[in-house]
Amino acid sequence: MFVVYCFGIPAISFYLLSGHRSEIKELQVCVIELAEKEMQRKKIQTSSAKPITQPEKEGRELGKLDILMAEMKVLLERRANLLKSNPMLTGLAPLYQDYEARFYYFEVVQFVASLFLVAVAVRCLFLFTYFLSTCYHFFNSIFIACRHRFLSNLPLLSFW
């Protein structure tokens, strides 16, 4: 079980991610472009909400908004087609969606680093418990020696 968890999961995850590398990168680029277009759309909508004295400027802003919405629709369709053509991308999404397209594999690196840190922590814990048990045996032997010496030097007490 140790081998499966510590070596198998990162290896299989990396294998699956590298096998779908081009689709992941394409999907990530699509998502980033969608986010940029959404920011542009919000910027245009907030600027058009202000009172405009020139009607031709308002028409240009609405034209930009229509073009932007059409581009967003194309990007949404492209994203949907990618996910529909390769359903594995949806299942692998937690491994790559938080990173840029060129760092699609970084969740595997994070997993290995976490595993290493846990191994170091467990090793330190074992060393600490070994140190405590050694100290216990050392101080216990000193205590026994002192008790024996103290008890052997006591005079006998008589109560009569």
Shape: elongated
What structural category arises from helix and sheet content? mainly alpha
Mean pLDDT score, rounded? 81
User: How does the major sheet shape up?
Assistant: none
So how many helices?
5
Number of DSSP strand runs:
0
- Pattern of helices and strands: HHHHH
What Rg do the Cα atoms give? Answer: 34 Å
Helix content: over 70%
Strand content: under 5%
Give the low-pLDDT segments. none
Intertermini distance:
72 Å
Secondary structure: elements and pairs:
Blueprint: H1 2-19, H2 21-49, H3 55-85, H4 88-96, H5 106-152
Please, could you describe this protein's structure?
The chain has 160 residues and is mostly helical. 84% of the residues lie in helices and 0% in strands. The chain has five helices and no strands. It is elongated. It starts with a helix and ends in an 8-residue tail after the last helix. The model has no long low-confidence stretch (mean pLDDT 81).
Q: What's the short story on this structure?
A:
This protein is mainly alpha-helical. The chain has helices at 2-19, 21-49, 55-85, 88-96, 106-152. The mean pLDDT is 81.
Task: Name its key features.
single chain, 160 residues, mainly alpha, 5 helices, 84% helix
